[in-house]
Specification:
By secondary structure, the protein is an alpha+beta fold. It contains eleven helices and 15 strands. It starts with a strand and ends in a 6-residue tail after the last strand.
């Protein structure tokens, strides 16, 4: 199909062009009809409202997005009287009792099928906070990697010299009691070298293969249950529609294992941890936009991460536990970043949620 754009020029436009534009938009768009029932929502709206078009189609908007009483009345007026309106900083309560704050603009539109419809454009104010937080996490990861590499260079060189000198000294000593001291020096030098290596993460590139994220989660679940007492329960809520992804199974197991073990520590080995998976559409990680992302949530009911630690939790040596090394989360972030993904979290007393976002590039969903 061609459309005239000037007196002598035409541009080819596919019949599905408007649909593709709506699907690519990061602004949430809904179309409501009679009784405020949903007729269309773009992928950005599906993500924001945590419900798919298939589930929402035909449902009244306030059923899955509760709002102040005057808003449904204003929507009805828009539908029947053709009134535009804008509502700023309004709170929507979604299914599952999640609350979001949005600006919404409502415009009446005619429908060739019969009754009038209205178009709602929503912008989530909380989303700007999420983008800022994501940029902070990526900045932390970069800073942490640079700091650790520089630290490794400054530590490992003298450690090598120290270890070598201790070995030479041990060969010269005749007294076994004195040799015990050189063995301590060698052992501690090796321990420090291994600690630095763990801070750096794996040195070889990831070994990518086609993997099922639920098989990874089940492996971690079984490992952790085998390590702990019977008072620990690890529940699962998996979305079976998530396709396979390309990744290094061993590294993803290690990343998720680190987080689940942290959750076990948080609830002191007793209680419930939930593993949940969902598909997330039109997700930006760093500067790259992904059409489809696997969202893995690890949820515990512990006391939460102390506020003083939350901004720095992905830096090495930061831990809320006296026996912790502070390496589990930074290493997990490194391993997930190697897959083009990101780890985020939300935490309050009684609920901490770590969220792994793993791109499913090459899948149309």
């Amino acid at each position: 199909m061609a459309r005239l754009i000037s007196d002598n020029h035409y541009v080819a436009v596919r019949d599905d062009y408007p649909q593709r534009v709506l699907e690519a938009m990061q602004v949430s768009i809904l179309v409501l009809g009679e009784s405020l029932s949903v007729r269309y929502m773009n992928p950005a709206a599906e993500v924001m409202l945590a419900i798919s078009l298939r589930q929402a189609r035909g449902l009244p908007f306030p059923v899955f997005a509760r709002c102040a009483q005057h808003i449904p009345l204003a929507l009805q007026q828009c539908l029947h009287e053709g009134r535009h309106f804008t509502e700023r900083e309004t709170t929507l309560t979604l299914l599952g009792e999640t609350m979001i704050t949005v600006d919404l603009t409502v415009v009446p539109i005619g429908s060739p099928q019969g009754p009038n419809e209205m178009l709602i454009e929503m912008r989530q104010l909380d989303r700007q906070l999420r983008i800022s937080r994501e940029e902070l996490l990526l900045s932390q990861h970069y800073t942490s990697r640079q700091l650790t590499r520089n630290l490794a260079h400054e530590i490992k060189n003298p450690l090598g010299g120290l270890r070598g000198a201790a070995q030479l000294l041990e060969k010269e000593l005749q007294d076994d009691a004195l040799k015990e001291y050189t063995r301590i020096i060698i052992g501690e030098a090796d321990r420090l070298r291994n600690l630095v290596d763990r801070m750096l993460g794996p040195s070889r590139p990831p070994n990518h293969a086609v993997i099922n994220i639920h098989e990874i989660l089940e492996r971690v679940r079984n490992l952790v249950l085998a390590e702990n007492n019977p008072d620990l329960y690890i529940g699962k809520d998996y979305d079976p529609s998530i396709p396979c992804l390309s990744g290094d199974a061993d590294r993803l197991i290690q990343a998720i294992l680190n987080i689940v073990r942290n959750a076990v520590q948080a609830i002191e080995g007793r209680g419930t941890i939930l593993l949940r998976t969902r598909i997330q559409r039109q997700c930006t990680i760093g500067q790259k936009r992904h059409k489809l992302v696997a969202r893995v949530e690890i949820i515990d009911a512990g006391p939460g991460i102390p506020q003083r630690l939350q901004e720095n939790i992905f830096y090495p040596m930061i831990s809320g536990h006296s026996q912790g090394t502070g390496l589990g989360l930074p290493i997990a972030q490194i391993l997930v970043n190697q897959h083009g993904g990101l780890i985020e979290f939300t935490s309050r007393p009684g609920e901490t949620v770590f969220i792994l976002l793993l791109p499913l590039d090459g899948h149309d969903g």
